[in-house]
Amino acid sequence: MDLNLESILAQPGSPVIRHDWSRDEVEALFELPFAELLYQAMTTHRACFDPSQVQLSTLLSIKTGGCPEDCAYCPQSAHYKTGLRSEALMPLSDVLVQARRALESGASRFCMGAAWRSPRDHDVEAVAALVAGVKDLGLETCATLGMLTPAQAGRLKQAGLDYYNHNLDTSPEFYGEIISTRDYQDRLDTLAAVRDAGMKVCCGGILGMGETPADHAELLRTLANLPEHPESVPINMLVKVAGTPLAQADPVDPIQFVRTIAVARVLMPRAMVRLSAGRETMSDELQALCFVAGANSIFLGEKLLTTSNPARDRDERLLDRLGIRPMPVTA
Ligand code: SAM
Ligand code: DTB
Ligand code: SF4
Description:
Number of strands: 10
Bound molecules: S-adenosylmethionine, 6-(5-methyl-2-OXO-imidazolidin-4-yl)-hexanoic acid, iron/sulfur cluster
Oligomer: single chain
Strand content: 5-15%
Number of helices: 12
């Protein structure tokens, strides 16, 4: 490819913050020799963060299953028989028990997930009370509740919500293969409502759904070309759940997974890049490479929303062996 990479890459100490990445530029980053890409990602990481610190978040499913959307990866969709038991919105007292546990285990952010397509106003009111309670404990708050109206986003901000997670999941081109009950623009509209309400954006995707490397590049390009970069970019490895259409999906090449983390770091230098779902089936060495490539956030705790995450002692050993310390709260 005939591109002057030097003009698009960071000089040591000065990260490049751009919102006009072209398809060719992003693909050229993906195609760099692995060591060169990692060097660029590490240089960018160091310019913005202490590379030996990782932000720790904990997830809780506050409303489980029965979702009307047909996301092909999701165990919580009512379209698929995954054997998951649906549960109504959790009461505040139960959420606070879990939040205190998260705090004691060293997490700085508490993320609450609900299997809604789009919450009703009274659902948002109930979640606002949960957010206020969790915030009072001194944790950063994050929620992922589906599509929001601008007024709902404003209400959550007022209750003390720091982050809203709403993933683009994949490239605009591949999206229709994975979800038919909403479109890409719906996601972009909610992201804009969250931003306009003054909340921080957590937005990323999933690898391993049968997409191509070009889709990885287009997902990251879409994220980096948003008017503001998301503060948090979760990169999930598909957790294959029996009963979902993607239960037998071919695994993503682990080297391509690391490249995706590295390109996310180069394109969005100041974002927390989260090594998100899928760690349980990754080797310690693959996770270590992801941290070297610029990942600096993980979910801690033995459960994600409905699927499992590495055991606490395995994570402690891994972080200890890598000399990684928890990042202090930033909100
Ligand atoms: N219903 C809301 C929504 O879709 O925005 C919030 C909850 S939803 C479970 C949050 C995110 O979890 C999805 O956007 C998707 O990226 C991720 N996710 C769900 N199932 C997954 C799986 N099996 N493997 C990896 N990530 C998954
Ligand atoms: C994100 O990108 N990954 C998390 C969080 N945001 C909400 C969710 C992962 C869910 C994995 C499947 C499950 O446990 O249900
Ligand atoms: Fe519903 Fe979210 Fe799962 Fe899609 S990812 S089925 S919207 S819970």
